[in-house]
Amino acid sequence: xxxxxxxxxxxxxxxxxxxxxxxxxxxxxxxxxxxxxxxxxxxxxxxxxxxxxxxxxxxxxxxxxxxxxxxxxxxxxxxxxxxxxxxxxxxxxxxxxxxxxxxxxxxxxxxxxxxxxxxxxxxxxxxxxxxxxxxxxxxxxxxxxxxxxxxxxxxxxxxxxxxxxxxxxxxxxxxxxxxxxxxxxxxxxxxxxxxxxxxxxxxxxxxxxxxxxxxxxxxxxxxxxxxxxxxxxxxxxxxxxxxxxxxxxxxxxxxxxxxxxxxxxxxxxxxxxxxxxxxxxxxxxxxxxxxxxxxxxxxxxxxxxxxxxxxxxxxxxxxxxxxxxxxxxxxxxxxxxxxxxxxxxxxxxxxxxxxxxxxxxxxxxxxxxxxxxxxxxx
Length: 378
What we know:
CATH architecture of the largest domain: Alpha-Beta Complex
Strand order of the largest sheet: 3-4-5-6-9-10
Mean pLDDT: 94
Distance between the termini: 11 Å
Oligomer: single chain
CATH superfamily of the largest domain: Glycerate kinase, domain 2
Helix content: 25-40%
Low-confidence stretches: none
């Protein structure tokens, strides 16, 4: 029996690599002789950088930058000297996982640290940038990133805006003349894990703002502020990207990457599968086990489990998803190649307990699945 283990991270609990290890431990209890292939994955969110560095052999570098609330943090990025390529994961600088749940503030969080990482890449001589979007604590449509790169966002009195998406409601002048000139020669490819537009009921603020600490009132404030920012950007750039699929990724960073860098936006899971040569790993597999924190109707928009399942289905390999929670509309994932999906909790439990026991619960579910698969195959 050959099992391909290809999970994403479980937010606030396990990295993709740790999740793969936990699944493998459970499988070993049921099938000690099984051949296991570990393939930690990412779709643009936290953990994607690790998958890319492992696949490409890029150098791991560290940079001190601002986190989403402006505090200093150590962020990892990747440098591939042979191809003059930089790998930057937004979540390393502005990630939700870095901010305690009781401190998350969608109104005021900033992507300034992402801009600092891009400056480090430019200083290294980057000609190509692979920017992975997802797992953000931010909802500022890249405004903080632009300021770090030299843009000026000013209010009616000519003062710089405060950090965060809410302050964009006061934007009077968007001055791009000070942007680092090296950006003009940088080819940018952005990996997105959703296809949401910037604004509206499927936009960045409405869909993802609440998990970043936004109340209903905050969502309305942020959506209006981002709409104003999009108006200002369109007036300066002569083009409007607010409705682009993926523009709402990472609190509007998809919008910023396309509008200000001319980036191409690609589903992050497709990009990562290409980099790790996923099809070659899949070729000999009898079963695929994938997973992440939640499976729901949003998973159809580019999340790891569905991307993995689609590729597995095309090769005729069954795929099972292990997830922290089965959310609304998860059943639609069956049509995309997920043969079965299981939530991890073995009974009612507080979130903190579920997070603390994530590795244990993953191993238990994986063991049960492989025991059932073995019985059905015998």
